[in-house]
Amino acid sequence: MKQSGSTLANLDLNLLVFLRELLRARNVTRAAENIGVTQPTASAALARLRRHFDDELLVRKRGGYVLSPLALELDAQIEPLCEAAERLFTTAPFDPASTQREYSLLMPDYVLEAVGEPISRALHHQAPGAKLHIMLVTGRLPTDLVETLRLMDGLASTPNARLRVSGMRCTELFRDRWVCVVDAATVPAGWRALPAAELRRRPWVVPHHPGREYPSTAPLAPLMASLQLVPDVAVRVDSYRATPYFVGGTDRVAVVQERLARRLGDRTDLRILDCPGDPEPIVETLWWHEKHETDPGHRWMRETVREAVRDTPV
Description:
The chain is an alpha/beta fold. The protein folds into three domains: 8-90, Orthogonal Bundle (Arc Repressor Mutant, subunit A), CATH 1.10.10; 102-176 and 282-310, Periplasmic binding protein-like II (D-Maltodextrin-Binding Protein, domain 2), CATH 3.40.190; 178-274, Periplasmic binding protein-like II (D-Maltodextrin-Binding Protein, domain 2). Helix content is 36%, strand content 22%. The chain has ten helices and twelve strands. The protein has helices spanning 14-25, 28-35, 39-53, 69-90, 109-126, 145-150, 196-201, 221-226, 258-261, 296-310; strands spanning 58-61, 64-67, 102-107, 131-136, 154-157, 168-176, 178-183, 203-207, 232-237, 253-257, 270-274, 282-289. The strands form four sheets. It has a five-stranded mixed sheet with strand order 4-3-5-12-6. It has a three-stranded antiparallel sheet with strand order 10-7-11. It has a two-stranded antiparallel ribbon with strand order 1-2. Helix 1 (14-25) packs across helix 2. The chain is elongated. It starts with 13 loop residues before the first helix and ends with a helix. It comes from Saccharopolyspora terrae. InterPro entries: LysR-type_TF, LysR_HTH_N, LysR_subst-bd, WH-like_DNA-bd_sf, WH_DNA-bd_sf, YidZ_PBP2.
């Protein structure tokens, strides 16, 4: 790379914008269209970048262009660099009372049922003009979680290996525990916990179950292993909230989060019993991309959500 005169003061930072779009599009014409400049302007920018880096950057191959090895290295660096520059030049004091910002959050319906209302109230009380876009997890999490959370404000999820990667940040929201829900007529009145033998005997209602076999990645897999139990899955339903409604009037069992089960307090036909085997606690966590870490508006949202959940009784 040529170094003559290449101090920051001598650089045209407009080239950074063009370089990012060029690496995205891998085509000069499309890059020009995407940033709203003419073809001659884009060609001149490419020529300047090639002189600066002493590299072709775009290499013609059969069927189009590909990035040079150096361009591939730049491609891995350009997004965080541009995002940092955008934050630097757009940083302003954040005022919740006047913000019109929209926050996008991805969460399971169980979390929405358990703490959605206090979160909504807290955000609205402090920032009445703020917008919310709540998206429900309806099955497996997105394949590329890091890239998904680069474009969103947060995800509520229990910890797993896919989230414990570089670029992710998190804070604990609340803890919960697993309980069993059964039809009251199918258990003795004095039972406080459901025996393991009953879990083995009864057919199960399971949320977000992908197929016939109970997956090793399921939240209750460690409990199943400790009890040497393979659930007989009778009902699969793509909702945590709907799970208990397939228990009443049957001998089925649903193992659900206690905060969700307590919402059924007016259902006298159902019983909530402790699980056998002392399952691990549920640790619901808010995850976000590191690009949001120092954003004042995002920090306010994280702290407000965490405080609202902390003050919510089980």
